[in-house]
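Entry for the shared binder. Reason: the reviewer on the internal report wants the predicted structure included alongside the sequence.
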Amino acid sequence: MSDAVVPHRSEDNAQAPRGGAGWLRSALDSDIFYSFRRSKLTMVAAAVTVLFFLLAIFASWLAVQNPFDPAQLQLINSRIPPLWAADGQSPFLLGTDEQGRDVFSAILYGMRISLAAGVSGVVFAGALGIVLGLIAGYFGGVIDTIIMRIADVQLTFPAILIALLVNGVAKSVLGNRLDETATLGVLVIAIGLSFWVQYARTVRGSVMVEKNKDYVAAAQLIGLPAPKIMLRHVLPNTMGPILVIATINLALAIITEATLSFLGSGMPDTMPSLGTLIRIGNNYLFAGEWWIVAFPGIALAGLILSINLLGDWLRDALNPKLR
């Protein structure tokens, strides 16, 4: 009797790991991962993007100083060239700015601010656009007309003007009560309100197609509430285009934040993002201190380029016509 039971248990144990790793095997065998492995440029872009995120996350451990802490800054160390230059000094690998901030440390911390504003802005824009797109596409009628007309009006203005308007109104209302953290929150709201339209229009179009299918009619027939049908059944079928838009908009959101900071409407000098660092360095470019603006600009360009390359690949990989 025991001999008949033991093989049965051993077979279950042997199948458990295979079942637990089934999702990983399916992912590795998918068309998307195959497309990713075939594109060397995409793999390099993904590696660079992950590297930038890791540098931002571990900035506190990698930086030689906290550029946001005035106690760690010394004016005697201001405008020191990069380490490989004739007057370079250790440990300032990429030199220092006019306040004695290590440029490499400032880039790490500034990249953290830029990525936080970009990612948070995209999440806010996506959440707002998805909800409004679901409501407009599912219910239609007057609600659809109102939401889409608002979207059409906003599309007549560039995103940077919308962000400037929201940012200016917030600063005029709150005034001196805006600290660094509140300023970052205002930037996130400004970016989110600038990019929600693309999500709403895309989701609305997908929902108008999906709501006429049999599975939605079956869900309505058994009495499921509309929010549950939209979120659990309709929304998953629209995630492909949403992921592509989010990836591309992440680069646009980072550029928008950098532009606002460069124009003086974004992060302050005491908590600089990459755009603020470029604005500060631009004042000393013609004085010969080129490194103050060059290295933050290179970091911003590399980050935007890698994310854009990932967005282009994802758009092609999720397009069934190109498979």
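Summary line for the report: The chain has a mean pLDDT of 85.
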